[in-house]
Amino acid sequence: GSQSWSKISAGGSHTAAIRSDGLLFTWGGNSNGQLGIGNTFDIYSPVQIGTSSWTSVAAGGSHAAAIRTDGALFTWGLNSNGQLGDGTATSKSSPVQIGTSSWSSVSAGQNHTAAIRTDNGLFTWGLNSSGQLGDGTTVVKSSPVQIGTSSWSSVSAGSSHTAAIRTDNGLFTWGLGTSGQLGDGTIVNKSSPVQ
User: How far is it, in rounded angstroms, from Cα 15 to Cα 2?
Assistant: First the structure.
């Protein structure tokens, strides 16, 4: 029979979705453990991840992140650039919790991750070669780094850049700018948020 779904995210070669009952499922490419099922075998139809209830999921290049109904953030998959945020560069084939904070939204880019806590603080981690973390550097971070002190309502991590909206509705971008993807009228990389 047909199932009812509420959230979906498509990554590099994998897909993650939350069913209407809150259960999390993944399928597709799994060479880096990005399905979160404890192994690295590709899966051709949806497989359930644990028994928890989830509110948000994001599939990145070869990693994924999800927020449980209780606000806990978990990541899994490729971690060569610290994109899981667990302080290591070791890939994980099962979900690992990131800190103890409560989170409201998460977005997974090609090799970096961005998330907003329930207190509206914005954090990023992972590859930073183009300044896509927005912390003013181009240094890889394997743990969440807070970006400024502003309150944020929305964030989206791209291939090598990031875009976010503040709670005052201001729009900011940072990271790779060579194709004009930052929208600031230049083709220059920016390592800090630009309005």
Answer: 18
